[in-house]
Amino acid sequence: MKLELAGTIDVLIAFLLAPLLPGIINRVKAVCGGRRGQPLLQCYHDVIKLLKKGAVYSRTTSHVLRAGAVIAPAAMVAALLLLPVPGRRAVMSFTGDVVLWAYLLGVARFFTMAAALDTGSSFEGMGASREAFFSALCEPVLLLVLLLMGMHSSGGPVAALVAVALIIVLLSENSRIPFDDPNTHLELTMIHEVMVLDHGGPDFGFITYAAALKLWMYGMLFSAAAVLPVFRPEGWLPQTGVFLASMVVFAVIVGMVESLMARLRLTRVPQAILAGGALCVLAIAFALR
Amino acid sequence: MSFVFSRRRLETLAPDEFRSALVARVDAGGRLVAFFGLPSGDGSRLHAVVADDARGSVQVSVAEVRGLFPSITPVCPQAQLFERELHETGSINIAGHPWLKPVRRPLAYNDFFKVEGHEIHEVGVGPVHAGIIEPGHFRFQCHGEKVLHLEIALGYQHRGIEAMLCGASPARAACIAELVAGDTSAAHTVAVCEALEALSGEAVKGDAAICRAIALELERLANHTGDLGALANDIGFLPVASFCGRLRGDFLNMTALVCGNRFGRGWIVPGGTAFGIDAALAEELRDRLQKHARDVRGAAELLFATPSVQSRFEGIGKITQEDCRALGATGVAARATGIARDARLDFPSPGYAGSGLRASVSQYGDVHARAVVRWREIQQSFGFLERALGVLQPGGQDADRMNLAPDSIAVSFVEGWRGPVCHVVLTDSKGRIEHCKIVDPSFYNWMALAIAMRGQQISDFPLCNKSFNLSYSGFDL
Prior knowledge:
The complex is a heterodimer of chains A (289) and B (477).
Chain A: E1 2-3, H1 7-17, H2 20-32, H3 42-52, H4 63-80, E2 92-93, H5 97-118, H6 122-151, H7 157-173, H8 192-195, H9 201-227, H10 236-260, H11 269-288
Antiparallel strand pairs in A: 1-2
Chain B: E1 2-6, E2 12-13, H1 15-27, E3 31-40, E4 43-52, E5 57-65, E6 68-70, H2 80-88, E7 93-95, E8 120-125, E9 137-143, E10 146-153, H3 161-165, H4 170-177, H5 185-200, H6 206-234, H7 238-259, E11 268-269, E12 272-273, H8 279-305, H9 307-313, H10 321-327, H11 331-335, H12 343-346, H13 367-388, E13 395-396, E14 408-415, E15 420-427, E16 433-439, H14 442-452, H15 461-468, H16 473-476
Parallel strand pairs in B: 2-5, 6-7
Antiparallel strand pairs in B: 1-14, 3-4, 4-5, 8-9, 9-10, 11-12, 12-13, 14-15, 15-16
Helix pairs in contact in B: 4-5, 5-6, 6-7, 6-13, 6-15, 7-8, 8-13, 13-15
């Protein structure tokens, strides 16, 4: 394993700017909907407000609920250390680190679902069941995407197919429309949000922040998939500039998808994820040609 | 439109005759619009009102019942909720009803239908919901994501509206009717006013009648537009959701321009209307109508032209025409299955004379069909308002001098935005209101929603519920 201390600055940038992504997405959605929208920095305000609050725990829950709110964000931070800004090195890197990255997200998901089940609420149980089902379908697609990104880094149809498959996976994994609706308040239709209904105060602050970090990491993947095949900037400043610009483009794309599409009915979600898998298989065929 | 009957001239039937007459009328295509009892000696005097929409006629039957009354629900499912209501209020003892569970006493009831077996789970939602909506409890029996059975328990908002109307003066009765369901203020007020005017023998005509139709159509526009937006919101289709939310407010503001209240309170009074429309106001309303019509068209066309929306709406929450007829479901929900019934046409009030309206129907009975019916009704309302808006004088007869005919029954029908609103008003021998029966379309349609959810995905419930958009307070009274 190699430690790259220069990558620490990239991690700090992620810590600082991750909550900005939901802000940009919400602003894009608001403009498309003809509204003014919430402040760009709303997610920062929310997290700070939640961290200042006290916590209330249901008497029917055990330490599993509390563990979920600690382990899931911790796993996200650990995963962040493994992911490089395109063109640079991550803080930690070793052969096969990408598999560890994928499964650190898996650890976070497992503990979020365990915490949801721990509440004994029928809503949270349904949410956990949906999350388990959809993420099980997403996982192979994500691994295929990572594989393709590793073996083939030039432009052309492969890069385009991989980028689309990645967008499908990241929308599903980050509970965005058309797979989930981050804004809905309807317990019966929610997926991710319903699993954290019983979390409050600092716990929920950590969860909200961890969700922003997760979105940021998928943004980094998108940036690598979309930018690297086209050109490779040299030097710290151009690299950082191109990276941040691609993150803004990423947030705008997610916001546009959410504005232009209705949510899929739940029974169609597996089909949409499998479509991502089919795109990957097609990309492999192109890559091996 | 309203009908008056003299209580003395109504023949009192024996319970058996009453039952068979009722069942025969409903079998012949009639709709049981009200069924209630008045205490009489040690028994009860049952009144049943059956409307024949096709002929535009109404029949009232009366029977004296002592002891047990054999339920007609097994042969006439439309009666199920009315009989439960009779049982709950202690009017009569009913024998042979499949399930006499309370109608408006949710706290006295905890015996929900239960499905048992491997992997069956139960989900309870409400009465406190995660949104600014009314209270109601929904109990789902599910197998995974599939709903096997939905039971709806209401009554959390029971205020005793019908009891408040007893003995009320006409002016006060109209004020109370405004509170039956906040989003249907105009329809309920017009319904009670028409019943009272029929009892006083002076139907409202001319400008006041047109003014009432305008109030009803503005209410329809506001609610239907809001519903299209709410449907879009439930599937996360944001542009239409936010535009329709704003447009709903624009229509409410048009109502407020006339009478100072966004929900039309105080606009309609017994004997006429309290506010008219002068030349400047008519001009302003026409301008706004044109502008909003354009905006609503844009939003609705985007909604119905977007493939992801169509895929989400179609085939969800389907109810068949047979089930609708059996349950007596009315209004938008029934028209979405192809039942071409609209009280504006079947029982036209003077304000709608020569309106050129048609019943807006669709076929498939799903969420999409209900959305389409709303959009068609919106377009028709625009047409109607364009023709009707003009200089209209306020006024009519004085509500305080209204003399109601003694010993009479008045039945009135008004097509509210959800469907036909029916009010039955009975007067005593001194011409005072002795009893009132209010039937909002929600009274029948909640059951239709429960049936529509069978075999559906539980995640589709909010969307399905929104497509019916029924009133809790209109049911709870």
